[in-house]
Structure formats: C-alpha cells, structure tokens
Amino acid sequence: MTDQVTTVSIRDVTPRDGLQAGSPVSVAARAELAVALADAGLAHVEAVSFVSAEAVPSMAGADEVFRLLPGGRTVWWALVPNARGARAALAAGAGSVTVTVSASSAYSEKNVRRTTVEALAGLAEIAGVPGASGAAFDIVVSCAFGSPFDDVRSPAPVIEVVEEALRVIPEARITLADTTGTATPRRIAAVLAELDAKATSDLGLHLHDTRGTALANALWALEQGILRFDTATGGLGGSPFAPGAGGNLATEDLVLMLEDLGVSTGIDLDALLRIAGSLPALTGHAVPGRTALAGPLPTFDSRLPSE
Amino acid sequence: MTDQVTTVSIRDVTPRDGLQAGSPVSVAARAELAVALADAGLAHVEAVSFVSAEAVPSMAGADEVFRLLPGGRTVWWALVPNARGARAALAAGAGSVTVTVSASSAYSEKNVRRTTVEALAGLAEIAGVPGASGAAFDIVVSCAFGSPFDDVRSPAPVIEVVEEALRVIPEARITLADTTGTATPRRIAAVLAELDAKATSDLGLHLHDTRGTALANALWALEQGILRFDTATGGLGGSPFAPGAGGNLATEDLVLMLEDLGVSTGIDLDALLRIAGSLPALTGHAVPGRTALAGPLPTFDSRLPSE
C-alpha cells in the first residue's frame, strides 16, 4: 500500500515537546535548534509553548524565541494552553497554533488541572481571542489510544473529543497523540476506522516510543493513509529520567525508514543526525533515539524483482 | 493481512545472543534464565553456544548449562560454530542446532576468521559429524539485509548463501539475521521476494534494533507471511557498551504487539516482564527494551467497528 504514498509531512516538535521536561535551555539555543531543523528540511517545527513560565520553566521566553525565527517557508507552530497563551502567541506573530485536549479527563486534570469538558470550553475561549480566526489550528487529542489512568478504554471518548473540537474550530486539523505510548497497530486501526466514518479530513499522529512501538505504529498508520506525523529529533520528549516515560518517535528513525521505502520527506538525514548529535550537549543527557547513535544505513539495492 | 495470522513462533535467544557479549554469568543462572523463559511459554529457547571458552568466556560451560535443562516440550537450541562445537553439542544431547553463515564475507572474517565460502565448507563438516543427521538444523544467515562492511549491497549474496546452505543441509530451516540493524521494511520485502521465487520453506527472522526499526520490520514481515522470529528478553544482545551496537528485538515488545493484534504467541507477558526485570541484576546493566521499563498496556477495546 505504501507504494502509492510518495510524500509524508513531518512536524518536528523537539524545541517544545523535546525540551519541555528537561532543564531549561537558553532562548538563543532553542531558536538555533528550531532553525537548524528548518535548515535540515523540516517544513513544520513546533518551536515554542506559551505556557506559564512558573509551570514550565524550560518553555519561558516563548515570545523571545519566536522573534528569533526567520520568516519564509517554515511553518513555526506555537503550543498554547489557554486564551492567555493564545493572546501571547498571536501577539508574538504566531500564525500556527497547537492546542491540546485530552481524551482522558484524569490525565487532563493531572496535566493542566482541568477536566476534558473544561479543556474543550477553554478551546472555545482560545478560538474567541481577537485575531485567532486568522490562525491555523491543530488540535492535538492526547491519550488517543489509551490512558495511564485507564479512562480511555475504547475509541468512543476520542471520537467525542474530536467531534466537539471540530464543532468549536471546524477548519482545524486534528492530531491524535499517543501521549504515554499505549498505541498499537490495532488500536490505531480501531480509532481510525471510527474517525473515517466521521469523515475527518486532515489527520496526523503524534507518537511516543514508550513501549518500542512508535515506528511500527507509524508504518501501520502510513499503510492506513496517515501522511502527517509529529516527531522529535533524537527521540527526545517525555521525561528521560522518569521510569516508564518514553520519548517521541525519533525524527531520524522515521525519515530513515520512509526514505528507504521511497517515500519523500524533504529532510536531509545527515543534517538531522548532526542535530541529534548535538542534543546530548544541549540537554545534558543521552538521547534515546537509536539511529542517532548508530548512524545511517549502508547501501542496499532493495528494488523489488518486479521493478 | 495480519487478520489471517493466528499464531507466531518466537525463539528467545537471551541466554545466548543476549549474554554472549557481556560479563560471564554463572552456569546455574544461565540455565535458570532459560528455564524461566520456557516457563513463561517460550517453546523455543536458544540456550547455549558451543564456542571456545577462550574466544567467548561468557558462553563457557555450555554442556553444563545443557545438563540443567529439563526435557519436555521446550526446544533448546544450541549454537555451534564448527564441527568441534557440533560434536560437543551432540554429545551433550542437543537435538536442535543453529549454525551461522554470514552473507558478508568481511563480517565473517572479522567475526569468526573465515570467509563466507570457508564458513559454508564448515557447514558441510558440521553436517558430517556423527549423529548430526538426527538433529534439526537452523542456518542463521547473518548480515542478510546489509553489511557494516558494505559488501552486501543487494539480496543476491544472501540468496547465494541460502541456496548453498540448503544444498548442504536440505531439510534445514533458514533464519535471516539483521545482525547490525540495517534491515528496513523495503529491504526485507526485497530479500523475501527473491527467496519466495526460490520457494524456501521454513523461514524466520532474527532482528536487531540498532536503528529502532526492529518492531516495524517484524510487523512488516508478519504481513508478508513470516511467522517465526528470534528475540531476546529486555532487548539484550549485541554489545550494550559499544556505540552503535543494538540489541535484539525485545521479546516482550513483540509479544505485546502480537497479542494486541490478536496473534497468539503462547507467551505470558507478565512472566516475561518479570524476567526482563531480573536482567539488570543478572547482567549488571540496564536493558534497552522499552516495554521492560514501561510495563503492559492499559485496557483498550480495539475491536474494529465491523467486528
């Protein structure tokens, strides 16, 4: 089935999801990382989060980071947690905004001290901020394939959140997030089958590798027609220090597999590996991504006999 | 396509591939590990290697380990490097023997100081050892999806080794090994397509996670009809201390994905995770397997709407 796929869109979320749980890194270094990713061919980069600096010190100075990002072809995404964040993001010039709503109310309460219903009300507030109508929105539905608090036991609550979110912002894209790495090929198939029935248009996946399934899930989703993925270089993300936490699907692992499959990503793997190689110095710890350690593939003529 | 697959056979190679590159572990602990794996439901366990104790100290005392393994339903595999090893294995009572021949002559020379042609001649010597005709053979073709020395640049040398090996031992099963983690879905498809044309019967895969691709490769191979995999609990294997080396596909990661897909493995995931949890104490280092750290999945009803 992948024979028909020629292009996949990857959004690298390293400067946001990759760095948010770690020790703070300077504004200049965060902007430099975002620009390096763009230079490596990433057309979409989630560069900042307009959260409160008290809550997430590593994301402080989002507006300063944003000011250092060049205009041009790169789409710079800014995560906003609420209307206040949305106002700050729009004031800084952000034109592409991600908002997270969790399918797990328990996770939502723990993470942002709001139930899912309250988070959806918050989404409406964000959409009502002056200037918001001019922005592109990506609604990231977290815990979309199961919850660590066991309150997402089927696709049903995920579909409900997607439907409600699209009622609030009909033109938004939707990204299903496997926040704690509980997705499997079958769970993805089950959620996509239900969503297909609802004819959701622009759908992406945000995968974490908590149980080593991220790349297999991406491959499976690709076969099911998903052409948009969130990843982080070096597989950063989550907390590398918390037992059981897992980083994002590594950008370079996905690029390596896709390009080998003949699917174009527009991304320079060597440049990406150089960025991955710079991350231990930036973050102060090793990265979990495996291609980052192993390097690119040796040559192999994998044309099929029929080609 | 996986809807048609109901059972997959997994051979756990932890006591051999998982421990061979580490500090030596006692004979009793190695036997205990092998038995624990069998008790968790592994019907096939590669328990020992009859290599020279000087060359690989961690594998010394293979015959002693073998004597501690109970008879019954478990198939205990013994790796043998040459005729001398085969004689020792058969004398110890091994009835199932793995022999490795590398598709990469450069790797073969570095690993066992023999070219591929010499290794194939060695295979004939092994087959000629008295009693060998009564044993089951699995010929593991290493570097089957590319070589770190860049001398396996297409499926051709792999097919040649398989064909020659089957000329020597026609009833042998063949296991294609991704020794240094260079396999990708496409490379696997290319090799399988060539082998299909040769109508090889019993084909398995031995995958390493050097570039994070092991589980995606397994999923892809499963879709192509491969029903037999080598894995190691905790993702042990290779050298955890050498930059770029990657462990085996983790048994528990594969079991988790397969069981979630509705494919039966006969393996108790909880028991497997307990074994994985015991490995850091046994080996003296953390294991790379991710489910080993994260634990099993929360509940999720992933029946498809049509079911």
What does this protein structure show overall?
Two copies of one chain form a homodimer. The first copy, chain A, is of the alpha/beta class and 307 residues long. Chain A has one domain: Alpha-Beta Barrel (TIM Barrel), CATH 3.20.20.70. In chain A, 39% of the residues lie in helices and 14% in strands. Chain A is built from twelve helices and eight strands. In chain A, strands 1-2-3-4-5-6-7-8 form an eight-stranded parallel beta barrel, surrounded by five helices. In chain A, α2 runs antiparallel to α11, α6 packs parallel to α7 and α10 (251-260) runs antiparallel to α11. Chain A is globular. The two termini of chain A are 15 Å apart. The mean pLDDT of chain A is 92.
